[in-house]
Amino acid sequence: MPDDTTEVPPLLRLRGVSKSFGPVQALTGVDLDVPGGAVTALAGDNGAGKSTLIKCIAGIHAPDQGEMFWEGVRVHLHTPADAAALGIQTVYQDLALCDNLDIVQNMFLGRERVRRGQLDDVSMEQAAAATLTDLAVTTVRSVRQQVASLSGGQRQSVAIAKAVLWESKLVVMDEPTAALGVAQTRMVLDLVRTLARRGHAVLLISHNLVDVMAVSDQVAVMRHGRVVDVRPRDRIDERILVDLMTTGTSDREVSANARGTDLEGRVVP
Ligand SMILES: Nc1ncnc2c1ncn2[C@@H]1O[C@H](COP(=O)(O)OP(=O)(O)O)[C@@H](O)[C@H]1O
Ligand SMILES: [Mg+2]
Could you tell me the distance, in angstroms and rounded to a whole number, from the CA of residue 24 to the centre of ligand 1? Predict the structure, then answer.
């Protein structure tokens, strides 16, 4: 008999998480396990509760009910700083960066390096550039460029690099490609895979089924505030995903020719 107590807990475990806003029940009894070193996609139609769920994980909303475990230990997050202290970083579509600051200032915002009472610009600049290079973000010309002048994909890349710089264990992204064109979407999705390869957990919210199919290791589907199904990537295809998003169930089999391709264009097994 396997001994349950020796099981390695997932990085993040949610059990029975509920949240309402006045009369609106945004989340109802959500159970979800987010493993390290893998991309978990959170899919669902508009209003399904995806953003509310990640705001609970990010310490922005306190759930009304339910439990949250980090590396097997029960935690209570009251502020985004509590989440950041655990190693949870959230990359929002628009709010991730400050326009009027440059890339270095953004990546070190609130955690500036100081040396002899002065900002250590040289060390911060080197660390910011090294992190971007390490992630193969090659389109940024200078780390002293104002963030306002960056493209949408570059901004997302900088926000992701910031999460890496701060050694986040879980990077949560809410619709990171919603406003991006094809090439920039590809760049951000490549970075998502890179994060997972390096051992970070990624929780990616998207209602773009192509994105979900391209990058995820497991897919959790939300509908009307509940997680209705969680499946490994090889047990889901676009038709099943649409079924789950719209009705909450699917009795289809994964069709061999609908399994899609990964970012390198290989057919997903
Ligand atoms: N701050 C809020 N106040 C009131 N209702 C909210 C708030 N945030 C979300 N909701 C409601 O909760 C439900 C889930 O919303 P949301 O989590 O944003 O869904 P999704 O991100 O999946 O589109 C919706 O009905 C939405 O109107
Ligand atoms: Mg949302």
Answer: 8
Q: Which two tokens stand for residue 186?
A: 């590809």
Q: Is 51 in the pocket of ligand 1 (CB under 6 A)?
A: yes
* Residues spanned by the domain of 172: 9-258
- Give this prediction's pTM: 0.88
Q: Residue 241 domain-assigned?
A: yes
Check which CATH number belongs to the domain holding 174 and give it.
3.40.50.300
CA distance 72 to 172: 19
Residue whose token pair is 């064109």: 181
| 3-state DSSP assignment of residue 107 | helix
* pLDDT, tens digit (0-9, with 9 covering 90-100), for 118-166: 999 999 999 999 999 988 888 888 999 999 998 888 888 898 888 888 8
Number of domains in the chain: 1
User: Given ligand 1 and candidates 28, 32, 51, 93, which is best to mutate, with the most ligand atoms within 8 Å of its CB?
Assistant: 51
Q: Cα(54) to centroid of ligand 2, in Å?
A: 9
Assigned domain for 49 exists = yes
Residue 3 inside a domain? The answer is no
User: Quick one: how far is CA 101 from the chain centroid?
Assistant: 24
Q: Is 52 in the pocket of ligand 1 (CB under 6 A)?
A: yes
**Cα 189 to ligand 1 centroid, rounded to whole Å:** 25
Which pLDDT score is estimated for 269? Answer: 46
